[in-house]
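Action item from last week, closing it out:
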Amino acid sequence: MPIIRIAPVCKGKIYVVPRTSENGKELRMDIPMEESVEYVSTKSDKTAQKVKEKYQAHLKTSMTPRFSVQYKSPSHHGSTTYLYILPLKQEDEIQFHEGRFISAEDINKHPKQYTSNLQTEGELLGMAAELWNDFYL
């Protein structure tokens, strides 16, 4: 099954929360919004918006998730992962229990604190967060 992951970004940083790691035994930091979906068509942006809406209680933004990249995820048994970013203007536009903003550099410095998916996506998300910070805000 395809996976849609949505990474909130603000001021050059990525928002993460503690989640059970791929092995199911430990907590590691990861982006907060992820859903398995039946299929993703050429209208994957609409599917990503529906995923975002499931988490709307944690969000104070009307921004739409923006497609970033698609890749095969070893941690999801080779399923295709569609990675989106959700640009935020202010850090207080999102609130999950124990959530916080980090830099891509934090992921590189302490990889064992983060899921393998976030380790794979970290550099790309860091660049996307910086671009949104420079050009959107």
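Closing note: The mean pLDDT is 86.
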